[in-house]
Amino acid sequence: MRDLYSLVLRVKRGDDEAFRVITKRFDRTLRHNSSRRGYFEEDCYQECLFRLYIGLKKYKMMN
Questions:
Q1: Are residues 18 and 36 in contact, defined by beta-carbon separation less than 8 angstroms?
Q2: Which of 38, 35, 61 is nearest to 48 (CA)?
Q3: Is 61 in contact with 8 (CB distance < 8 Å)?
Q4: Which residues of the chain have pLDDT under 70?
Q5: What is the pTM of this model?
Q6: What is the rounded CA–CA span in Å between residue 17 and residue 12?
């Protein structure tokens, strides 16, 4: 099973498939956070995905 650490490393190297796996794993949380007003907000969801991607690319890994 792929662990999150290795997936983050792969995203940092530009692996789009690893990012897809992470977003699939956390999709329920992302959708929940995009539905806070009682309905799903697609723009909010897209912004969450964008910020997740940027955050993963900038994340400094601990040794």
A1: no
A2: 35
A3: yes
A4: 1-2, 63
A5: 0.80
A6: 12
Say how far apart CA 63 and CA 50 lie, in whole Å.
26
Contacts 24+ apart (CB under 8 A), 36-40: none
pLDDT at residue 2 in the model: 56
The size of the chain, in residues, is 63
pLDDT score of 33: 85
User: What per-residue confidence (pLDDT) applies to 56?
Assistant: 94
Contact 2, 20 (CB under 8 A): no
Q: How far apart are CA 31 and CA 42, in angstroms?
A: 9
Phi then psi for residue 3, to 5 deg, are -90, 160
Per-residue model confidence (pLDDT) at position 61:
74
